[in-house]
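quick one, two chains, predict together pls
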Amino acid sequence: MRRLALSTAGTLAPAFAAMTLLSATLPTAALLAQGSPKTPPAPLALAPAQFPPFQEATLPNGLRLLVVENRKQPVISLSLSFAAGAVQEPTTRRGLAGMMAGLLSKGAGTRSADEFAAAIEGVGGGFSASAGDDFLGLYVNTLSRDAELAFSLLADATLRPTFPASEVELLRTQTLSSIQLGKSQPAVIAGRLYKQAIYGAHPYGAEADEASVKAITREEIVAFHKAQLRPQGALLVVAGAMNLATAKALATKAFAGWSGAPPKSAALPAVPARTANELLLVHRPGSVQSNVIIGNTTWLPSDSRSFAATVVNEVLGGGSEGRFFRILREEKGWTYGSYSGLSRKRGVGNFQATGEFRTEVTDSAVKVMLAQMRELRTQPVPMDEFTKRKGSLTGRFPLTVETAEQVAGQVATAKLLGLPADYVATYRQKLSAVTPASAQAAAAAAFQPDKGVILVVGDAAKLYDKLQGIATTLRLVDVDGKPLTPADLKPKATTLSLNWGALVATADSFVVKLQGNPFGYQTTRLERDGDGWRYVEKTVLGPVINQTSVITFSGTGVMRTSKQTGTVQGQEAMIDVTYANGKATGTSKTPGPQGPTSITVNSEMPAGALDDNVVPAFMPIMPFAANAKIPFTVFQSGKGSAKNSGITVVGEEEVTVPAGTFKTYKATIDGAEQPTFFYVTVAAPHRLVKIALQGAPIEIVLAK
Amino acid sequence: MIRALVQQALLLTTAVAVLGAQSPKTRIDSYTLPNGLTVHLVEDHSSQVVAVDLWYNVGSRNEVKGRTGFAHLFEHMMFQGSGNVKKGDHMALLGDAGGELNGSTRADVTNYYEYLPSNRLNLALWLEADRMRSLAITPENLKNQQEAVKEERRLRVDNQPYSGALVEGLPTLWDATSCFAYAHPSIGSMDDLNAATVGDVQAFFNLYYAPNNATLVVVGDFTPADARKMIAQYFGDIPRGKDAPAVQCTQTLGTAARRTVFPDKNATLPAALIAYRIPAVNHKDYPALELLGTILGGGESSRFNRVLGREAKLTIANQALVNPFGPTRGPGAWAALAVANQGVPIESAEKLMMSEIARVVTDGVTDAEVTKAKNAYRYGKVSERQQALFFAEAVHFAAMFLGDVKAVDTDLDRYDAVTAADIKRVAATYLQPANSLTLIIQPEKK
């Protein structure tokens, strides 16, 4: 490779020699005249670069071999790919290809799963295998001194997996847990439902679910492996410190005796065509952000519009210079990042415009994204912007071929997708040939804002009204994709029907004990307040907590106000919330490990909900009984949101506290932040006698 | 910005560490400009790329109470324009050149890098110099980036499972009274971020973003003579700043086991993290602790995976994390993490993890395990040298954390010297219940 030539070096050198001399004696200001230029320096010369060389061979059994030799560091990576992804699975066995891949190293040849892992990891290497929509791949990387071991493990996993029943069950358990884990991750939820929405019944739209993973049998896995992992059509790629001859010799030895072709794939269902757009709103209650994907299916990888689409996609949402990032993050500050991309598949690919936006601006952000997509379909990109974005794509070429693995990845992808032999070599020329007109034509085909899907995963209770009218239809679903109705979004309060006439004024005192020793006290007082009631609770825990709550409510238990003042570990705790006309409004400040969090409360207050600090006041007249469940809804005034809760009686116990010995019901409160047992007298009105925190040595006991 | 690396820090992957020694001695051209800027140049013509990597010696450890999240907020401000670069142009110019860029904020350091075709080395250096000299600190930029940082917090912490508990909980491993520097989360609190003023940001810049508080590493396709000229021209006239105050932190091992339960509204499976205080990266015990991390919780053949994941079938994931928020010159963290399988009470995984740790203290580890961990370490370091950007980070790491840039070649010796007896000893010293903090993350019912 040629050294780069510094075109300005000749003229600058004397100036710098002078500057170095001066710097010792003169103040910095004197140097400014010769200092840094006011405008960005022009590009230096760069030697023209070709796509790095690679070599190919085909073994007698039909296995294709691709070698990218690079001896910069003594490492190699191997990858072996088969057209055996999800498209080859029976429709009721989604996840079969992935499970088969996951089991290839869990017992192979003479090694158990543990021995296989110890063998590759013992030399500092790694092995993995996974399946996607189209392909299944096995990957090994290691120091090049252990190349022979790498080939032999790769061959064992490919040809001689043993699929022990115990490993099948273990992987099944882990796969089910992964599915469960995915339901906690908004990006995973969005990706899964987006695929479903655009691909419908096509295998690209399906993913493993609980039912399919439970249905897969060991026999099906064994049969799938036997049929699919065949040398014909497979591609072995070797990248790193190894030449073709060595790679060929090692592969021939390792894969000796392997032959055959996989079965012809069954015809796949057509990708659905849409005539109008649809907004799919996925309800994730309490989500503070919305994950947005706008997109549609595109075309086959060989489509001639691909190059122009790559350029116009770069204009729309490619990195930090795309329009999405510039407008939505840099101008508006609505998101941490918003991008777009074209995904290639062996079959029909897809386009996705993505972003995560905070709930309040989600509708505005979606509108901006759609408007930008429409603009690029109908207007050519201004020449300056076009030249820069295209220049960026072609200019970054050296960064994409820095390592042997990068080079190998590009060549392998082109081969697996069935692209022409000169694809990687001519890629930059084809990008360079794109014009604003061809880019606009590609945009008109690749971006379908009016015939695609607009998927939003977020708190639909706050989004449903604002997202109306953006698309032809709006469909509301839960995180599993099951239909919801707008009524499902309203917090449904469970109203306690109590005998309010039985409520009487009370005053109790409690001792707080830490590891059995008195540490503080709590007093509670329920008293009349006009036509309603006032509940006052004061808690003092040594120097740690000192707070007072005052909640007022009507004679029939309708909340009126909630106030709290005090300090927790030196931080201010404050609640000032008013309940009226189905709303809760006010402010609160909640202490936390990293300082207090202040919020403004302005939320719907479900009819019949209780302030979360008032629950003890209602206990005397609650229907306690053996095994009773008493459901109700609480409004968390410190958080500004409602949630369903309830009391469950879990046992009966005789409890002795300073105030005496009582027959009590032992009960828990559902969804409490700290799991807690409390004890109320069996005799009505039920008096609170003791509270015990689970997992912490703290008790609150009735003193008098 | 700032995506990949902050993500690394937040998602608890181990940050860049030292380099392998298998390669011949690296030729490093090291020098310091009169204004205090330290420079290390590594010439490598194997690809037409260059990595420009500028480290400022400032991170969340330099933050004070009431001003948490400042180092990270500031990192965002660094992309908002400077004397000769309009807002947005920094990214635009590099993007148009086909380059990549980012920044990240860790406990000990804030880094900024450009990775680009080698004929644009001059552009990267010029841009870094312009913002070191004349950052545009305006109310509009501050407001905009306060929002972006809060959005980043929503994305990475508030809307994700586990992150909140780890980001808020793990720093409580250290004592906030004697070592606030490390005992608070680097992403900061929303209230502190809201309170930041233009004056605060300017003062922070003046103190920490001076050439004498920065180190520049350039790796790739250039000649040092040419790079020296450009660096002198672009950076030479930036005035030296005051010396930044030393970070105050005294920390001993913990004296009583602590356990905290975090309800997590985003999580669907419970998780447990058991963390221990360990010494700084350059301490003699550190290599043994890192190799112990691999033995217990690195890869499929690790003890945690074998015992918890495969034999007892309790966990979907388990891992040992050594300094999950980046290496430190102050106290570090050694942590074991487990995520329970569906329907498994996390306490059973927690108990088994504790007993596996205790087993190392009583019975030690095998020589085969030590060899495996050393090989894994070696592979990682050798493999990292394939890319200019990773190698630039490794050069910085040696200079800042090991105190000598030459350690980029020799640090592997520290790891090769570790014995099974060393590992047993450091386990007994540091992985004691009294020195632990356990975080239990429980899915909160909606």
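The mean pLDDT of chain A is 89.
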